[in-house]
Amino acid sequence: MVEPDHAYRVALVAFPGIRAFDVSVITEVWGTDRTDRGAPAFDLRRVAADTTTPIPMRGGLALLPDRALTWLPKADLVVVPGLDDHLTPAPAPVLDALRRAHTRGTTIAALCGGAFTLAQAGLLDGRRAITHWNLVDLLRTHHPEVIVVPDALFIEDGNIWTAAGTAAGIDLCLHLVRRAQGAEAAATIARSMVTAPFRTGTQAQFIEHPTPRFDRDADALAAVREHALRHLHEPQTVADLAAQAGMSPRSFARHFTAATGTTPLRWLLDQRLAAAQKLLERTDLPMREVARRAGFGSEVTMRQHFASRLATSPRAYRAAFSTGSTTGGSSPIAR
């Protein structure tokens, strides 16, 4: 296989004990060629201390590494899968390679119990990290130097990303695509995977699902979210959304958070950011018009939210991820 020079290089760190599900997620996101659909080119490599022996995984599966640990300096991103036994010790050469990658400034991400591997390497000492909600106490007990965050889908600290369990690994992988290649690239991959293209990392990983007596409320909340997205360009408050649902603001906020894992205002901000990202990528609209259509009201407000949530500016985001100028009039976000 010829390594494309322009491809974004991803290293899947493999050793005995890694979870097949996480390996599959990483492979599906970065190991599938979707360039014919406009997705960027990726070069995913399965990196291990020993490339001659298949790595066994649960369920009768095996992974054959195709690169040694010496390939890690070439990687733009290093991803560590979760573990079947979360206390599985990683081989010393793997831990050393992860430490060197972090020293070089390479972005490192761990899915689910992969946080235990990063903790073994000492990379999470004094850092905030997350894992599956059922493993939070175990991580705290075995690695007390880690600042374990109990309730999030994924978080970042010092260019090290950790994610909660199972589906949250998909969320983190898509977020890392969005961060490096833009919202449109992440959306293309999400559509191919038939999964949600945007779930913020601050969303709670454990969501209360409505019981049958709340089905009517759940339907009302879904209708409110749809209405809010259609009118994203208009000012909207929690009171406005609650009125759409026929609830008091307090009751609405409680039911909304229970159903989605996030507050109404945070959800609305996430949708505005996603809309602005798409407009910046797809159109050449002036910043003031992008801010208006996304519902920020002013370019200054949009810029402040980009800085606080995305660590960049709208102009820098457009320069990095613009897919070509259009008039903007036919944009599905345009109102």
Overview of the molecule:
The chain has helices at residues 20-30, 92-104, 114-120, 136-142, 167-181, 183-193, 215-230, 238-245, 249-260, 264-282, 287-294, 299-310, 314-321; strands spanning 8-13, 42-48, 55-57, 61-63, 67-68, 77-80, 107-110, 128-129, 147-148, 154-157, 160-163. The longest helix is centred in the C-terminal third of the chain and has 19 residues, at 264-282. A 7-stranded mixed sheet has the order 5-2-1-6-7-11-10, with helices on both faces. Strands 3-4 form a two-stranded antiparallel ribbon. Strands 8-9 form a two-stranded parallel sheet. It has 335 residues and is of the alpha/beta class. It has 13 helices and 11 strands.
Provide key terms for this protein.
single chain, 335 residues, alpha/beta, 7-stranded mixed β-sheet, 13 helices
Rg calc:
21 Å
Count the E strands: 11
Give the number of helices. Answer: 13
List the secondary-structure elements in sequence, H or E.
Answer: EHEEEEEHEHEHEEEHHHHHHHHH
- Percent of sequence in beta strands: 5-15%
Mean pLDDT value: 87
